[in-house]
Amino acid sequence: MGTPSLSPWAVLVLALVLVGLWAPCVLSRQPNFIVILADDVGWGDLGANWPETTETPQLDQLAAEGTRFVDFHSAASTCSPSRASLLTGRLGVRNGVTHNFAIASLGGLPLNETTLAEVLREAGYSTGAIGKWHLGHHGRHHPNSRGFDYYFGIPYSHDMGCTDTPGYNLPPCPPCPQHGTAARVARKDCYTEVALPLFENVTIIQQPVELGSLAARYAEEAARFIQRASDSGRPFFLYLALAHMHVPLTPPRPPAPGRGIYGASLGEMDALVGRIKEVADSLGKGSTLLWFAGDNGPWAQKCELAGRLGPFVGAWQRQRGGSSAKQTTWEGGHRVPALVYWPGRVPARRTSHALLSVLDIFPTLVALAGAALPPDRRFDGLDVSPVLFGWSDVGHKVLLHPNSGAAGKVGEIEALRLAQYKAFYTTGGAMACDGSTGPAERHQPPLIFNLDRDLQEQEPLDVASREYQAVLPAISRAYAQALQDIAADNVSVADYSQDPAAIPCCNVQHVGCRCHGATLDPHVEKRTPRLCL
């Protein structure tokens, strides 16, 4: 029996229906993009994720008006590698950024890597970065040389320099010395000699930074950038990399009883995000996609100044000592809160269980902008716009997790996710609140957990069990194929060399490099010492 043919009129009607179904992807104009990246935030720091959290009404409202992603992961469990992956769509083993850059680093994200800002600027976007950079600040590694028309922020983590108001940290750090004769006491994990700089483009406008007003300044500069871009008639891409919730914490006022320092700081971050949403909505709802995510999990060794893991406690590791959060490949290290808000495009009040990653931001925004991915390289991220629009809930089949400062070689793939299964090849080596690090252990065959039954990662599958034997070949194949794919790729190598001349210092004559502003040209490679000691 033959297939009945359709009349020309029926074909036309069917075509119109299909066009209507795909209409959300046919954009009348290029959308604006705001990516907000929180620092050291826990999956459980979002009230919509974890009912015990009450300090995030603005983020919870964002979740109610958009889509919440509960199986969303950072690409690494520490600062520089995670940010490099967001801006390139590639893991550190491909883009070269495997661990953090220092204040004296000469290098940064390799120059042959193409950033999301460069692609979008070429597509007609105004591009701005506000907040923490941490991908190299010397020479051509400065954000203004990596695709961003405008930059306002701190070139690395805000604990990597002294300030006059140090805030809350463990261990506590002293303020900057005020005079050249001031006593300087070396403190472990504290930067006591050079003040923390605040940049506007290539100018240091404050050194040391006033941390107490930083959140308000970020909000103000973000609003100004959005308004300037709107006035120009061009679409914009704003990358807002918050100081929250990294230590030192500097809540705007003394914490209310029961909230604590962390809770007060979390509330400040929440208000900042709410302000950015308000500014975006003022341009007309539906014109701007806002994507909120975390760069990695909480820094466990900071104890009460670290965030909430939710259920992802890495119980197997905790039983043996050491952290199961930041720096590790346990879920608490890389499963982060994530929300996407885009009225009229992204469904409201939806929870997605798709396996997604910070890596997906690059290819997804490039696709939505109507641009093309850079050639001659492979990407770990996916265009997940069908998931954003609610047409699908399928993300990655396989997701790789690199070592980010725990046991093993930095940047190496030490864990792998395949569907609901998580395989570990190396564990241990990250410090917990009690000072323990846990033994560094290599697992061959790997530890395998079924996350559908064991979100706490408490009990690995018995190696002799039928389930373990059934899933191990698929995991082994996926792991081998991933390593082969990386080996065959155009892989970059970052320069991690250091020179005191690379330390941002606007006045070498003043103790701690104090100043009120001086221009630094990022294209000039300075080799004379600018470090005040």
UniProtKB/TrEMBL annotation:
<dbReference type="GO" id="GO:0046872">
    <property type="term" value="F:metal ion binding"/>
</dbReference>
<dbReference type="GO" id="GO:0004065">
    <property type="term" value="F:arylsulfatase activity"/>
</dbReference>
<feature type="domain" description="Sulfatase N-terminal">
    <location>
        <begin position="31"/>
        <end position="371"/>
    </location>
</feature>
<keyword id="KW-1015">Disulfide bond</keyword>
<feature type="signal peptide">
    <location>
        <begin position="1"/>
        <end position="28"/>
    </location>
</feature>
<dbReference type="GO" id="GO:0033889">
    <property type="term" value="F:N-sulfoglucosamine-3-sulfatase activity"/>
</dbReference>
<keyword id="KW-0106">Calcium</keyword>
<keyword id="KW-0458">Lysosome</keyword>
<comment type="similarity">
    <text>Belongs to the sulfatase family.</text>
</comment>
<dbReference type="Pfam" id="PF00884">
    <property type="entry name" value="Sulfatase"/>
</dbReference>
<dbReference type="InterPro" id="IPR000917">
    <property type="entry name" value="Sulfatase_N"/>
</dbReference>
<keyword id="KW-0732">Signal</keyword>
<dbReference type="Pfam" id="PF14707">
    <property type="entry name" value="Sulfatase_C"/>
</dbReference>
<dbReference type="InterPro" id="IPR024607">
    <property type="entry name" value="Sulfatase_CS"/>
</dbReference>
<dbReference type="InterPro" id="IPR017850">
    <property type="entry name" value="Alkaline_phosphatase_core_sf"/>
</dbReference>
<dbReference type="InterPro" id="IPR050738">
    <property type="entry name" value="Sulfatase"/>
</dbReference>
<keyword id="KW-0479">Metal-binding</keyword>
<dbReference type="GO" id="GO:0005764">
    <property type="term" value="C:lysosome"/>
</dbReference>
<protein>
    <recommendedName>
        <fullName>Arylsulfatase G</fullName>
        <ecNumber>3.1.6.1</ecNumber>
        <ecNumber>3.1.6.15</ecNumber>
    </recommendedName>
</protein>
<keyword id="KW-0325">Glycoprotein</keyword>
<keyword id="KW-0378">Hydrolase</keyword>
